Amino acid sequence: MNNEHPFIPVTSLSSGLGQNVTPDLYCLCIQVVNVCFIGQVDEPNGWFLVDTGMPKSADEIRKAAEQRFGANHPPQAILLTHGHFDHVGAVVELSTHWNVPVYAHEKEFPYLTGEQNYPEADFTVEGGLVAKLSSLFPNEAITVGKPLKKLPDDGSIPGLAGWRWLHTPGHSPGHVSFFREKDRALIAGDAFIAVRQDSLFQVLTQLPEISGPPRYFTTDWVAARDSVRRLADLQPSVAITGHGPPLSGETLSSGLQKLAADFDRVAVPDYGRYVET
Q1: How far apart are CA 98 and CA 76, in angstroms?
Q2: Quick one: which of 276, 242, 1 has its CA closest to 114?
Q3: Cα(190)–Cα(168) distance, integer angstroms
Q4: How far is it, in rounded angstroms, from Cα 43 to Cα 277?
Q5: Contact 203, 189 (CB under 8 A)
Q6: CA distances in angstroms from 138 to 51, 118, 258, listed in the order given
Q7: CA-CA distance, 121 to 136, in Å (whole number)?
């Protein structure tokens, strides 16, 4: 399988901007998708990268990491929420450059070992212009190779004390989110997002709006609903999602509870290839 997805010429006003969410949790927007750095700036040998952004973004991620942690301080590992093209765009290049493991849920392995392509994006789904353009988005599997490791069955993350991973499928079969009980910090991936991703205007402006997972790539809406409700039950204090600005406070708590309660009405599209009728 080809590991080089093409560059996708979409961006937002937030592209290139980073934000400290907690002292050891940093969110960086790459075009229209977020990557996360977990780790204290004054402890550069112990940080982790969550997701690897859009295709052709390796140099931008490396530069941001060096600015935050200094040169010659690679992460301990790369953690993947899932394997869609906008979350693994630089994973092969970065894992090779840094010589670090890549952890993912075993149900994502077929898409990360070159065995199976994701279902094609549903450009017929109810939604805005981005949904209509989604047929242009890559769905091909990549081959991460030897760095790919399975997340431990017990929910732990090797080397990252205090955090655990949660299986949050729906958007993809092996989608996971990461949660720290101590301060209830959540990295949600695309289980839910902070911008309406099918709307071109909201993608460009990154106006915050808690939404369900991106409609054009979500294939199991029952599992997606259950995942959102599981995350809402955690009552996170801060959340970084795959798309949109970080969330906290009343915006997060009320918005996530509303999404969980009204998921079938506000998140599930009225029609589409992957919508049960």
Answers
A1: 9
A2: 1
A3: 9
A4: 52
A5: no
A6: 17, 9, 32
A7: 8
